[in-house]
Structure formats: C-alpha cells, structure tokens
Specification:
Elements (H helix, E strand, L loop, with lengths): L1 H5 L2 H15 E4 L3 E2 L13 H10 L6 E9 L12 H4 L1 E8 L2 E7 L9 E6 L2 E6 L4 E6 L15 H11 L3 E3 L3 E5 L2 E10 L6 E9 L5 E8 L5 E12 L16 E4 L18 H5 L11 E2 L2 E11 L2 E8 L6 E7 L21 E4 L2 E8 L2 E8 L2 E7 L3 H9 L2
Parallel strand pairs: 2-14, 8-15
Antiparallel strand pairs: 3-4, 3-14, 4-5, 5-6, 6-7, 7-8, 9-11, 10-11, 11-12, 12-13, 13-14, 16-17, 17-18, 18-19, 19-23, 20-21, 21-22, 22-23
C-alpha cells in the first residue's frame, strides 16, 4: 500500500489509534470509566461471565457520550488540537455492524472534528480540518448467524486456559461502568511484552455488550489509550445517526488498495532471505542478529503492487520489525504543511551519517531513514535507545 509507505509516522499512529479504539470491543466498543457508585453484578468465574455475555440477546443499538484519551505521545510534542492525537470528547452510536464515533475538537463541535464510521468491514475516518477522508477495509472473520450456537462453557474455559500460557488474567471483576453493572478483565503479558503493560476490557452484565477497552504501558498506572463514556443508553438508533455525508471536495485516501502487480494472496507466502531477495529490486539488509535478537523471518510484502521485505527479530511484543522498500519521494499535501498535518513535531536523528526521524511513544518506537536508495522503517515495542541501536545495526 503506497500511501501507508509514505504517510507521516504520527498520522499513521493516529489512524491506528482510531482503528484500535473501534476494534478493541467489536462494532460497539465503548470504553467506560469504572469505579463509580452504580450497581455491580454478582461475582462469577471468568468463563461463566464470558459465556453469559455471548448468550445474551442482542441489543437494538447503543448511544453514548464519550471521552477519548490518547497519552501515547508526550504532550510537549503536540502542536495545536488534533482529536486523534491529543484526545477529545464526543458521541457514539452503534447498531448491528454499523458504528459512528464523533470526536469533537471544541466543546461545541465543528471545525477540527473527526468522524469515525464503520459499516460492516468498511472503515472511514473523516477529518474536517484537512478535508480528508481515509478509507480502509477491516479484517473480518466469518459472519455469525442467528442460529449459530454459543460456545460451551467447557470450550470457553479451554480457550482461557490456553491464553493463560501467554498472559495473566485477572478474572471477571464485578464493576460499575457508567452506572451499569459490568464485568472487567485485565490481561497482562507473562513475557516478551515489550512496553505493553496490559489491556482491560469490560462488558455489560445484562446485555453482554462490550463496554470498556483500555491499553496500559508497562511503566504507568493510567491507560495510554482509553475510550470512555460518561453516559450510555440501549435502544434503537436512527439511521441518520449512523452516517454522515462526505465533505464536498474532500481528498480521499484509500488505505487498502491493491495494485495490478500485487501477488495473489491465494498463493503461498514467499519467505526466506534468498527467496525474497530474488523478488525485490534492492539489496535486503538482514543480519543474523540485531541488538542481540536473532532473525526470525524474512517475508515478501506487497506495497501497492511494489515488492518490499519485512524482516523480524526476536519473539513476542519485545521483538523488532524492519520494513524495507525502494525509496521514493514522499508526496506533499498542500493541506498538510506540518508533517502530514498531524500537529506533531518529530525529532531528527542521525543513523550512521544519514538523517532520519524518530517517533517515541509510550508503547514503542518507530525510526525511519533512507540509505542507498532503500527506505527503512524500524519499529518495536522497545525504548528509543533499542530502536536507534537496531537502525544503526542495519
């Protein structure tokens, strides 16, 4: 995907944050503040709480007032008001496989607002400040049917037992979520978690609707990403609340196009240094080890019909990925004079004598640079010192 290759790192990060907020709890994911004075449900084993949530009758729809918090980036690096990067208040509507999330740049809304729309597997992000619409196709599993049986309690317990081999589960904690009785679970990586401290999810004890999704860094007690509602109601949602017209004359960016030269996904993936090298027009840099991590895989990737190489080191979230592709001039948008209009100032760094950029977040680091006609993106849930050392080791 050529746009993803050239999109500014902070804008890509902001878009990913929006997608994570949507995917974290499915089509009706809304994060709520816990610990209020409302009712709490009776204690239940986690497997039973999950089973009962899956077996609950579906709701007609969800309407909520929300607050989105984003502490991935130090506020000192932010310039101006960008709801995706700095957080914002807003509203949410969801029904079936449709969702609309509105983040307001100002208390009264208007200029600078961001709209996130999901319609089945189609995601649209509308930025009014730049008159830009981002579109993407979300990954989607098999569609459930009304007659599909709920997994048995034993099956759910088996899945949770398997999960505990990689993570620690808190169990279903009775909680009050915006005045609703809910269950909350925290999942913490056992090892190879990188900078990820854990994730939390909550769901309505009566309706089984996902109610909370939050991501925590390993060095902090507060979530770095949170989408919480100050009020929520269940019931029918008007069709007009689930859609918003595209701004006239808006610039449309397709985040998931496929070029005519892209490989057929039905074919077996091309892996291994020798095999991938034969498919790309540049020399792949892939040492056996990088900052002490052994090379795990070299894989051919499609960048909008242009072949690239993805080299991974280490295992789990503590690993490092290196994306390599033939360098191109990055397009400049007249509406994005400041690093893609992201409102973020990125520090410049030197990688073995060439200039690069670094994005340091609470959950990981991204380093980008070009050398010898090849573009490199080094990313991992690691601190800046480790990402910089990996870039200099290429």
């Amino acid at each position: 995907m050529s746009y993803l290759r050239h999109i500014s790192t902070p804008r890509l990060l902001a878009l990913c944050a929006a997608v994570v907020a949507i995917l974290a709890g499915g089509a009706v994911a809304i994060a709520m503040a816990t610990g209020g004075s409302g009712p709490t449900p009776p204690p239940k084993p986690l497997a039973r709480a999950v089973h009962d949530a899956l077996a609950a009758p579906p709701v007609a729809g969800v309407t909520a007032r929300i607050t989105f918090t984003n502490h991935l980036i130090d506020s000192a690096s932010l310039q101006g008001s960008d709801p995706l990067l700095s957080g914002a208040k807003g509203r949410l509507w969801a029904a079936g496989d449709k969702l609309r999330l509105e983040l307001q740049a100002s208390p009264d809304g208007g200029a600078g607002d961001v709209q996130v729309l999901v319609d089945g597997d189609q995601l649209s992000i509308i930025e009014t400040a730049s008159d830009t619409v981002y579109r993407a196709t979300l990954p989607r599993g098999g569609k459930a049917t009304a007659n599909e049986p709920v997994p048995s309690l034993a099956r759910i317990q088996d899945v949770l037992t398997h999960l505990t081999q990689r993570a620690t589960l808190s169990g279903a904690q009775p909680s009050d979520v915006a005045g609703r009785a809910a269950y909350t679970v925290r999942i913490t990586p056992r090892h190879d978690g990188g900078l990820l401290g854990g994730v939390e999810a909550a769901w309505d004890a009566e309706h089984g609707v996902p109610l909370r999704a939050a991501v925590y860094a390993s060095n902090g007690g507060d979530p770095v990403l949170e989408l919480k509602a100050t009020s929520v109601s269940f019931g029918s949602v008007a069709a007009g609340d689930l859609a918003i017209p595209q701004p006239a004359g808006a610039h449309v960016v397709d985040l998931s196009p496929r070029g005519p030269g892209a490989p057929d996904r039905r074919q077996a993936p091309v892996t291994g240094l020798k095999a991938v090298q034969a498919k790309v027009p540049f020399r792949i840099t892939a040492p056996d080890t990088l900052v002490g991590l052994p090379r795990q895989d070299v894989r051919l990737v499609d960048l909008d019909g242009t072949p690239g190489a993805l080299v991974t080191y280490g295992q789990g979230l503590g690993g490092i990925a290196v994306l390599q592709s033939a360098a191109r001039a990055q397009p400049q948008s007249p509406k994005a004079p400041r690093d893609g209009g992201s409102g973020l100032s990125l520090p410049k760094i030197s990688i073995n004598g060439v200039s690069g950029q670094e994005l340091d977040t609470a959950l990981g680091t991204v380093v980008r640079f070009e050398r010898g006609g090849v573009g490199y993106t080094v990313a991992g849930s690691v601190p800046p010192t480790a990402a910089e050392a990996a870039a200099r080791g290429l």
